[in-house]
Amino acid sequence: MASAENVAFLDSTETVIVAWSLAPIVDKTTYPNIGTVLTDDARYKSFYDSFPAMQAAMPAPSGS
């Protein structure tokens, strides 16, 4: 089952994830490109695959 993950996007298009956070960041004024994605989202899988050293700390992508 997919879980919701806290992420930061490169820009307002929300096409590229540049960071993952265990805790939600709620200040959208200071951090306007934050949001959540599900672990079955292709953007999350791409981000996850780009950082093998962090994979032990992050939830694995779900689905295909």
- What value does the Rg take, in angstroms? 11 Å
Give the H and E element order. EEEH
What distance lies between the first and last C-alpha atoms, to the nearest angstrom?
12 Å
Helix content range of the residues, please? 10-25%
Categorize the overall geometry.
globular
Strand order of the largest sheet: 2-1-3
Low-pLDDT stretches: none
List the total number of helices: 1
SS-derived structural category: alpha+beta
Let me know the largest β-sheet.
3 strands, antiparallel
Strand content: 25-35%
The overall pLDDT, averaged over residues, is 94
| Assembly level | single chain
Task: Tell me how many strands there are.
Answer: 3
Describe this structure in words.
The structure is a single chain. The chain has 64 residues and is an alpha+beta fold. It has a domain at 1-34. It contains one helix and three strands, in the order βββα. The chain has one helix spanning 42-50; strands spanning 4-9, 17-21, 34-38. Strands 2-1-3 form a three-stranded antiparallel sheet, covered by helices on one side. It is globular and about 30 Å long.
